[in-house]
Amino acid sequence: MLKSIHHVAIICSDYSRSKDFYTRILKLEVVAETYRQQRQSYKLDLALPDGSELELFSFPSPPSRPSNPEAQGLRHLAFDVDSIEQTVAYLNGQGVEVEPIRIDELTGKAFTFFKDPDGLPLEICQS
């Protein structure tokens, strides 16, 4: 019945800062950008190489996330990478603080976390 994840939607507090982070630092491709006057809201569609998308939204005065990853709801968003070490080095070079690399006790694969400009936890996983 379900085949794949089509997209993930993220609401940001500072549209320009988040757009820069996801396009310049994470290098996601812009598919479309729309400003919806009646909602005072931007919607930015971003493509990943596998065809899935992130939707970045801005709304006037959105509430903050209740707490870090253990808050009820979406825990984190994870991205698959070819080389976790190279990706961490790149992110650090862009001024992004990344946690130490760990090994998942169940899969034996390397992973780590960093945060987007609003503190949304993002994970990178070794393929």
TrEMBL record:
<dbReference type="InterPro" id="IPR037523">
    <property type="entry name" value="VOC_core"/>
</dbReference>
<dbReference type="InterPro" id="IPR004360">
    <property type="entry name" value="Glyas_Fos-R_dOase_dom"/>
</dbReference>
<dbReference type="GO" id="GO:0046872">
    <property type="term" value="F:metal ion binding"/>
</dbReference>
<protein>
    <submittedName>
        <fullName>VOC family protein</fullName>
    </submittedName>
</protein>
<dbReference type="InterPro" id="IPR029068">
    <property type="entry name" value="Glyas_Bleomycin-R_OHBP_Dase"/>
</dbReference>
<keyword id="KW-0479">Metal-binding</keyword>
<feature type="domain" description="VOC">
    <location>
        <begin position="4"/>
        <end position="127"/>
    </location>
</feature>
<dbReference type="Pfam" id="PF00903">
    <property type="entry name" value="Glyoxalase"/>
</dbReference>
<dbReference type="InterPro" id="IPR051332">
    <property type="entry name" value="Fosfomycin_Res_Enzymes"/>
</dbReference>
<dbReference type="InterPro" id="IPR037478">
    <property type="entry name" value="YwkD-like_dom"/>
</dbReference>
